[in-house]
Design brief:
Helix content is 46%, strand content 14%. The chain is α/β, with parallel strands linked by helices. Helix 6 (139-148) packs across helix 8. The protein starts with 5 loop residues before the first strand and ends in an 8-residue tail after the last helix.
Length: 811
């Protein structure tokens, strides 16, 4: 087979001292610890004819191997735009020591540097052109780079895959007309001849010694370095190898941190450094870190005794991180779980990621549960110990967090560059693939019903929408993914927990890193977030790390929930502060009524970011023709039925409804009360009003008949931001009584299809019940009201409005 000459044109050695990440510089961590001899050995062993090192503003690495065959001197120049001090990296290949010295004096002015490189006929190119070194890079800087240089890195084994894909399309689709537009816009004369095309090259970008030669440039034939670089300059080189991804970037970062730590420990704890290095290297290679041999355990114990850490393992009531980690890794079930990951994942990087996620999830959830236990026991101070124990674990997975941000945090810039360089955005940047996140999908409430219905309409409309949940029961997750009729991804939770003061309301603790990884790999373009719980928080974190659009939906008045459940004004204020922080992060916030739009504007969110969410109606299920005169009689009703449908919980003001019911019974009003739904307040409510009818949850035609067969609908909630059930009731031919606080009041047309009553005013509610009991609204008017709702509310239109960002009109 013909041997085609190749070179890794972007690789760093230990002579690159200054990392671009601020936090690494503050810790004194070098950008690379790779020995130049190791780079030469790896490349020569893998058939690279031409070998160079591109250290940052240094040629010392090249000089260390200058006597080896096929080597040439190169460097990575930190070049600066003098007008605003934005920094970029330019690679210069096959230079002399004298040229290096001249370059060092010119790198503070990129225009003078570019002129020098062209004049000296030094082959050079821009490295990772869409990565911002000092967070100042803009689309104007990128256009100037395109005007100043002709070679750009198009494949890098540690750079962002999305940015590389878009950049290749930008360079390959660049026309002279676009170049002329850029030159006029930027007001600079390009150093390059007008017909000069822009070309691409490849380099590994390796800085940890793990992916040397993973991406490289190759030509058909070249006898000398100069011949190879000449063909590269003329655009005759092919890009070979692979691009980067988060796992490779973060594994490299882990390797740098492990090297730094072992070097420090060789001084501060020399007896333990060997074991640490062995375990870390085994972990980075994708092997099970829980497989600690007997000899290694003795070595670990000896180091613990020597440093005094052994006491951490014998304190009877200790909840320290050391003890928690020790108990965790000695658990056989953990070893088996990690073994399963190793057999399942295809590459060392994926195995390391999956094990990191598993270990961090388990340990954080253990400490989180201990924190909750202390809080519920009233030991607020003691709860700080397990809570702070989470910080070292979070630090342990921070390389992944930093990697997501480093590779995707500039998505906005990538989009703007594509808009300038291409006639239209490439498919990977169009907002056509969205994920909808919720902490509740199997509950019977308006949030779940809206998400389910919208997602089914999305399938019919051929839109790419996936609902993402973290469901506790595995059977529910399997059922949802296979039989729900829409795209759904379920992440089995690490565990679940109950909210203090709100028992039986469980929230899932999702596998955070796994969810972020899924969002990144699936290349979603927008995160729609329905709930501010753990799943919603994870989605928000992912969107911020990956530079994605965010859309928040304010379904429920949680501050009101807290006020009702705790009767504590301070807790309500704290909830408002949290909710404001959460929704203020969103690019767009949907509310269900003008009342809540005004609430959020008053609390500081700009009016133009708040929109009314369109809602539809299942017109087949909720219809006045579903009326069945015997429906409630079969369930024990002796009189016409006043209906409530929804979650049976205190925040729905059901205690107040029970008092209204008791009052109308005392006054001899011949009406029964029916409660459809379930929830944590159900048993207590049955004790308060034992003669009411409790059906539990109803679905489909049975639910439709429950509505249509009733006399009227009572919904006293002050925490609902919309009230799907009110729409369903009116559409079924029922007039509705609703509170004057919250969203449902905007659904009701006063005097036509219902009444808006003062919240918690028992006399007013009782009077309204008596009025309708004595003078029922004519059936003809009910049918007219129902038909109007059917005409106004189409789920197809509601979804289309939502998908296209069209504001709804409340009807």
């Amino acid at each position: 087979m013909l041997n085609m000459p190749k070179a890794d044109l972007h690789v760093l050695s230990a002579h690159s001292k200054r990392p671009p990440e601020w936090i690494l510089r503050q810790l004194g961590i070098a950008e690379s610890y790779t020995d130049p001899e190791h780079i030469f050995d790896v490349l020569s062993r893998n058939g690279f004819e031409f070998i160079t090192i591109t250290d940052v503003d240094s040629i010392e690495g090249c000089l260390a191997i200058a006597d080896r065959p096929g080597t040439f001197i190169s460097q990575k120049i930190t070049a600066t735009f003098p007008e605003d001090h934005c920094k970029v990296h330019v690679l210069a290949w096959d230079i002399t020591e004298a040229q290096h010295q001249k370059i060092q004096g010119l790198r503070d002015n990129i225009y003078e540097l570019a002129a020098f490189l062209h004049a000296e006929k030094i082959v050079h190119g821009v490295a990772t052109p869409l990565r911002s070194i000092n967070l100042k890079l803009t689309v104007d800087h990128v256009e100037k780079l395109i005007l100043l240089f002709s070679l750009f890195e198009g494949m890098n084994a540690t750079d962002a895959p999305l940015a590389q894909e878009v950049w290749r399309q930008c360079i390959e689709g660049l026309t002279q007309e676009r170049l002329d537009e850029m030159a006029e816009r930027q007001g600079i004369e390009p150093h390059l001849p007008a017909p000069q095309p822009r070309r691409l090259f490849a380099g590994s970008g390796d800085y940890a010694g793990m992916y040397i030669g993973a991406a490289y440039s190759q030509v058909d034939k070249a006898d000398t370095v100069q011949d190879f670089l000449s063909q590269l300059h003329q655009g005759q080189a092919q890009l070979q190898g692979r691009g980067g991804d988060v796992c490779c970037f973060s594994t490299s970062l882990y390797k740098i941190l492990v090297t730094y730590a072992t070097r420090r420990m060789s001084i501060t704890a020399p007896h333990g450094v060997g074991l640490l290095k062995q375990v870390a290297e085994r972990f980075l290679a994708g092997h099970n870190p829980a497989e600690i041999s007997l000899g290694e355990r003795f070595a670990l114990l000896a180091e613990a005794v020597r440093t005094g850490k052994a006491l951490d393992f014998i304190k009877p009531n200790d909840v320290s991180l050391n003890r928690e980690i020790a108990m965790y890794f000695l658990d056989p079930a953990v070893k088996n779980a990690l073994d399963e990951i190793i057999h399942r994942e295809p590459t060392p990087e994926r195995r390391t990621f999956a094990m990191s996620s598993k270990i961090a999830n388990d340990l954080i959830f253990r400490l989180f549960n201990r924190t909750l236990e202390q809080i519920e026991s009233g030991n607020l101070i003691d709860s700080l110990q397990p809570a702070t124990g989470m910080l070292p674990i979070l630090a342990g997975i921070s390389p992944y967090i930093l990697s997501y941000h480093a590779l995707y945090g500039n998505r906005y810039l990538v989009e703007k560059v594509a808009d300038r360089a291409l006639p239209e955005r490439p498919p990977c940047l169009r907002n056509e693939k969205r994920a909808w996140f919720t902490d509740t999908l199997d509950d019977v409430n308006g949030v779940a019903r809206t998400i389910r219905t919208m997602s089914k309409v999305a399938i019919k409309a051929d839109k790419d929408l996936t609902v993402v949940i973290s469901a506790t029961e595995s059977d529910k997750g399997e059922r949802a993914e296979n039989q729900e009729g829409f795209q759904l991804k379920n992440f089995p939770p690490v565990g679940d927990f109950e909210l203090p003061e709100y028992k039986l309301q469980k929230l899932s603790f999702p596998p955070v890193l796994d969810m972020i990884d899924y969002i990144e790999r699936e290349r979603f373009t927008e995160c729609i977030i329905s709930t501010p719980g753990p799943v919603g928080l994870t989605a928000l974190a992912a969107a911020k790390l990956l530079g994605l659009r965010t859309c928040g939906i304010y379904h429920t008045d949680f501050p009101q929930y807290v006020r009702i459940l705790t009767d504590d004004g301070l807790m309500e204020t704290m909830m408002w502060q949290y909710m404001h922080w959460f929704y203020a992060q969103m690019d767009r916030v949907y509310v269900n009524s003008e009342f809540y739009r005004k609430c959020w504007v008053d609390r500081g969110i700009p009016y133009d970011r708040i929109h009314i969410l369109s809602r539809g109606l299942d017109t087949e299920t909720f219809h006045h023709q579903k009326r069945n005169e015997h429906f409630w009689q079969k369930r024990g009703a002796k009189h016409p039925v006043v209906l409530y449908v929804g979650r049976v919980s205190k925040e729905k003001e059901l205690e107040f409804l029970a008092r209204v019911y008791q009052k109308w019974k005392e006054e001899g009003i011949r009406l029964d009360l029916a409660i459809v739904g379930e929830g944590p307040y159900e048993e207590e409510l049955k004790q308060i009003i034992p003669d009411a009818i409790f059906t539990g949850v109803l679905h489909g035609d049975e639910l439709g008949m429950a509505y249509a067969s009733s006399e009227f609908f009572a919904f006293p909630s002050t925490t609902d931001t919309f009230g799907n059930v009110v729409v369903e009731a009116i559409a079924s031919g029922l007039p509705a009584l609703v509170s004057d606080v919250g969203g449902p009041k905007e659904i009701v047309h006063e005097g036509q299809d219902g009444k808006v009553l003062s919240a918690n005013d028992i006399d007013q509610w009782s009077s309204a019940v008596r009025e309708w009991a004595d003078n029922p609204i004519p059936r003809s008017q009910r049918i007219e009201n129902a038909n109007r709702v059917h005409q106004d509310r189409s789920w197809n239109k509601a979804f289309s409005d939502f998908w296209n960002g069209i504001d709804s009109t409340v009807k």
